[in-house]
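Task: sequence design from structure.
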C-alpha cells in the first residue's frame, strides 16, 4: 500500500501566489500532488529523487498524507482457456486477423493481396489467397515465418 498526499493550505497558497518561492523542482512536484495519486504514481511522474522531493515537501509543510491507497484488485479469471480455444472465431474476425498478420509480415509489398483477402466473402474464397500469402511470406520473410503463418490460419 502506498501513501496518498494532498496539498496543505500552505501548499495551495504557494501554487496560487508563489509566496514562498519554491525551487522549480519542488514546485513542479507540488503541482503534481492532487490528493488522488498515490506515492507510487507520483514517483513515476517526478523526474529526479522523487522520494526525497516528497519528503522535503512534507517536512516543509506543503503536503500532507491524505490516506493510504489500497492494492488494486486482481481481475477474476475468465472462462478457462480451453473453453475459449474450443470456440471458433467468426469468419470476419478470422479474416481480419489473417490480413493483419499478413500485413505485419509483408508491409506495403503485400498490399494488393491484403485487399483481396479483405474482400473475400467466404472461407472458400479466402483459402487460395491464404496459400498465396504463404508463398509471398516464404519469399520475403523465409520459410519459418511462412510456416508459422500457415499453421496459424490453416485451421479455420
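Answer:
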Amino acid at each position: 500500500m502506498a501513501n496518498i498526499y494532498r496539498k496543505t493550505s500552505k501548499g495551495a497558497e504557494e501554487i496560487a501566489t508563489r509566496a514562498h518561492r519554491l525551487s522549480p523542482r519542488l514546485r513542479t512536484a507540488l503541482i503534481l500532488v492532487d490528493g488522488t495519486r498515490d506515492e507510487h504514481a507520483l514517483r513515476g511522474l517526478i523526474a529526479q529523487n522523487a522520494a526525497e522531493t516528497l519528503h522535503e515537501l512534507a517536512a516543509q509543510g506543503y503536503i500532507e498524507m491524505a490516506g493510504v491507497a489500497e492494492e488494486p484488485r486482481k481481475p477474476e479469471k475468465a472462462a478457462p482457456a480451453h473453453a475459449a480455444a474450443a470456440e471458433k472465431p467468426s469468419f470476419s474476425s478470422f479474416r481480419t486477423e489473417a490480413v493483419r498478420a499478413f500485413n505485419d509480415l509483408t508491409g506495403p509489398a503485400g498490399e494488393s493481396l491484403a485487399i483481396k483477402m479483405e474482400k473475400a466473402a467466404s472461407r472458400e474464397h479466402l483459402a487460395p489467397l491464404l496459400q498465396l500469402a504463404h508463398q509471398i511470406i516464404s519469399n520475403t520473410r523465409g520459410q519459418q515465418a511462412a510456416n508459422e503463418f500457415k499453421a496459424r490460419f490453416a485451421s479455420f
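Residues 81-153 form one domain.
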